[in-house]
Fold this sequence. Notes:
The structure is a single chain. The protein is an alpha+beta fold and 276 residues long. The chain has a single domain, classed as 2-Layer Sandwich (HIT family, subunit A). The chain contains 6 helices and 10 strands; from the N terminus they run βββαββααβββαββαα. It has helices spanning 67-85, 122-138, 142-153, 194-212, 252-257, 266-273, and strands spanning 2-5, 11-17, 48-53, 92-99, 111-117, 157-160, 164-168, 178-182, 220-225, 240-245. Strands 1-2-3-5-4-9-10-8-7-6 form a 10-stranded antiparallel β-sheet, with helices on both faces. β6 (157-160) and β7 form a beta hairpin. The protein is globular. The structure holds zinc ion (2 copies). One zinc ion (ZN) is lined by residues 127, 225, 240, 242.
Amino acid sequence: MLEVTNAGGEWQIRVIPNKYPAVTLGLSDILPPASSALGVVSQLPAGAHEVFVESPRHIQDIWELSVDELVQVFQAYRERLRFWSTDERICHASIFKNVGLAAGASLEHIHSQLLALPDIPPAIATELVGARRYYDEHHRCVFCQLLDEELTHRQRLVVDTGSFVAFCAYAGRQPYETWILPRKHSASFEQLSDTDTRTLAEILLQVVERLRGQLSPLSYNLLLHTAPFRTTATDCYHWHFELVPRSTTLAGFEWGAGMHINPLSPERAAGRLYVK
Ligand SMILES: [Zn+2]
Ligand SMILES: [Zn+2]
């Protein structure tokens, strides 16, 4: 599906279909329309599920990759997003990484996953509604506004490279939840330039290194939030990574109410992560 090789012809990254897919575009496997939604679910929902094998070396986390290797990973993300953006059946693709047992990693070898879906997932839909509402009221992207405020107050700042900014999320779900945003407004990850893939690799490696200084072992979910394909939200949406360390367990309140209790304030977390 996609193979990145080095000058010697050895593979560096492979993108392959997930052996145990959560969704499928195989016609015989697709659920019939919603009329049977309350019947027996015996088939997979529609979509595509891919795995990025990010190194031929048997390593687990991105801090074990060089900047060059991580650049190639982001370029592979970009390539697969561009691929799915031309498929009319697909509306949005989620890319995510589960590192460590507490984050739900089922494979020890370094990898990420892509789920391409025919609908916009709820997390993105909620962000889009809020972003559109803010834009209509203030004529400005809410994420650009957020960046300005974080860079002014600096209390939640973790790393500022000039073209990317990392800060502890104001309403993070878990201690040390860190968001990484491009400084320049952009709705879609697939528009990222080669230069920016390098700066992004550098800032993500710095963030993970600092988190490793606070949490051991470090388990986390890295979530790419990017606009739906063929979107009209290019003015109000702004792609970003949400890195959610998994140091506390989701319990009754989280599952029952869909809300999160975070015992560490983002200002205190950033104070431990920020290096002057
Ligand atoms: Zn923006
Ligand atoms: Zn988000």
